[in-house]
Specification:
Layout: H1 3-13, E1 17-21, H2 23-32, H3 38-50, E2 54-59, H4 70-87, E3 92-94, H5 98-106, E4 110-117, H6 127-135, E5 137-141, H7 169-181, E6 184-186, H8 192-201, E7 207-208, H9 225-233, E8 237-240, H10 244-247, H11 256-270, E9 275-277, H12 291-296, H13 311-320, H14 325-339
Parallel strand pairs: 1-2, 2-4, 3-4, 4-5, 5-6, 7-8, 8-9
Helix pairs in contact: 2-4
Length: 340
């Protein structure tokens, strides 16, 4: 059997989950411009070619809209997804649990599970968390790389700031309520102080949906070995991130090979049951940046994987590193499926 045939078999048999994609910001903006069936037109063929079954779709709010418009923009993105599914019911569906994910795979649809990337949309109103849960949000990223009412984010590089804080009093209530409702707590983007607060207070498995090893790429956005061990001790999963500055500190090392080294490191450190993929593919969103912003980017392209359609290249790289079929199934979807 050729490696191409073997990869195709794995794609067909395995439920493949990307644990983090900022899809909805783009979809909402395009729909505001009058477009319809944005996911079907712009993304579906890529997902299908790559074998993707489930996208954990992040609700991300640009800092320019905060604090006043955080809730409105978040609800706009949720509404956009529901409208997209209504327009393309034969290709797309919303997932709220594990059974929905399996149904998406069996029916040949792409399933979307909603995630808050930062708790800014709820402001300081704890009751809004249930509203988002009822709308389908099942993953709660406590912060993005900035401070909010829940805690402090980890910056991509050092910035001038005052004293860093951990999880706030309100944040404690948010974590308790999220776990009571059935939301997974996501520590990607959280600073170290807040991370250890979450480890101490969380009662259920937690995830880092899109974070890598700080040993291999020394940015605060990544996790130390001790943090990875703590996530494993909770039964959680780490989604490896394909953004170049998260994969490697130096341009020349931002490669698919280096991305796979992060997977190797996690497997060797805490075991095959605690690693997944949270690709965080961003190159599509350069179209919203002006020339000055683009010029300030540390590197471009931003992703070490050329879109979801290139996922077979990752699978091939893992095969070449010696990963067997059952191990591949866990990495590309099985581990996240288990905890959801």
């Amino acid at each position: 059997m050729s490696i191409e045939t073997y990869i195709e078999e794995i794609k067909i048999k395995t439920l493949i989950i990307d644990a983090h994609f900022d899809l909805l910001m783009d979809v909402a903006i395009q729909r505001e411009k009058g477009r319809r069936k944005v996911i079907e037109t712009d993304y579906w063929s890529r997902f299908n070619e790559g074998g993707i079954n489930i996208i954990i779709a992040a609700i991300f709010i640009d800092s320019g809209f905060l604090p006043e418009m955080g809730l409105r923009k978040a609800l706009n993105q949720v509404s956009a997804l529901y409208e997209e599914v209504q327009e393309s019911p034969d290709k797309l569906m919303i997932c709220k649990n594990r059974d929905d994910m399996i149904l998406a795979q069996q029916s040949g649809k792409i399933g979307f599970l909603l995630s808050l990337e930062g708790a800014e949309p709820i402001g300081t109103d704890l009751s809004l968390l249930r509203v988002f849960y009822e709308l389908g949000v099942r993953n709660l990223g406590l912060v993005w790389s900035r401070r909010n009412a829940v805690g402090d984010g980890s910056h991509f590089s050092p910035l001038g700031e005052g004293t860093k804080g951990g999880i706030t009093h309100f944040g404690v209530k948010v974590i308790e309520e999220a776990e009571k409702l059935g939301m997974k707590i996501d520590v990607s983007h959280l600073n170290d102080e807040g991370f250890w607060n979450v480890i101490e207070m969380s009662k259920k498995p937690i995830i880092a949906s899109h974070s890598n090893s700080r040993v291999l790429s020394n940015t605060m956005r990544n996790l130390t070995d001790e943090q990875m061990k703590a996530i494993a001790s909770k039964g959680g999963v780490i989604g490896v991130n394909a953004v170049s500055i998260i994969v490697a500190a130096e341009d020349e090392n931002s490669t698919l090979e280096q991305f796979i080294k992060h997977i190797d490191h996690i497997v060797q450190l805490i075991g095959i049951d605690h690693v997944g993929i949270g690709l965080d593919l961003c190159d599509d969103f350069f179209k919203y940046m002006d020339a000055d912003d683009l010029a300030s980017m540390p590197r471009k392209p931003f992703d070490v994987i050329d879109g979801h359609q290139s996922l077979p290249k990752l699978i091939e790289g893992l095969i070449n590193r010696g990963y067997k079929e059952k191990e591949l199934e866990k990495i590309i979807g099985g581990n996240f499926l288990r905890i959801f």
